[in-house]
Amino acid sequence: MDDSPSLFASLDDPRITEQFCRRLRRPAGNVYLLGVVHDHPASVARVERVLEAVDPDVLALELPPAAVPLYRAYAADEGADGSPRFGGEMSAAIGAAAGADVVGIDAPNWSFLRRLVTRLVADRVSPATARRLVSSVGGATREALACRVAATLTHATSMTVARDDPIEYDCSHTDPPAEQAAHERSHVATVQALLGSVETDGTALSYRDETRERCMVDRLREHEAGGDLVAVVGVDHLDRLEEALSEPDRE
């Protein structure tokens, strides 16, 4: 396992930068936070390269626990280029972290539901906000259960059950790393600018996402004593997760 303070720099890859990669030092090992853009070639390559260098004891994914078996199946279903055909950076992470304990840290789960209800009651949210939240959580729960069913069918038959088609970008896995990195940075900047123009404080979306992040922090803390841990999460969660987990130096 690589414990070098300059791990990210030593990989000399334009896709592996402080914008997307953080390291928190812990007594039992290191916690590496990798921000990703779903299905983006630069994110897939970042995850694969860092995991190969770190060889973690624990791999934490921004997936509901019920969805992890499906992404394990995706990781074993490689295309002609040797990468998983489905599941993007999440299945690529599982494939690159052979031997790691793989855990899903995202909602829905009981901790998330308990936190959410407690906060809604304490804040006395409006009925309209509560209804939107229930609808959103219900959709996420159905999706997680569908992933579990898809995993069961995939294991029981000779076919791979795909839940979603891969997202297509104006760059590919065969483009040079610098081009992939530039495209990903531009994409993130565009999305963040759009999100920044929308007021979300106090909305159903903000309640859901803030509670999700608190639960992800709790799950990471549960597993950080198990040695080196790599967490693969959406890039929009990266700063808030780092801040909540922090105090130790970061890379």
TrEMBL record:
<protein>
    <recommendedName>
        <fullName>TraB/GumN family protein</fullName>
    </recommendedName>
</protein>
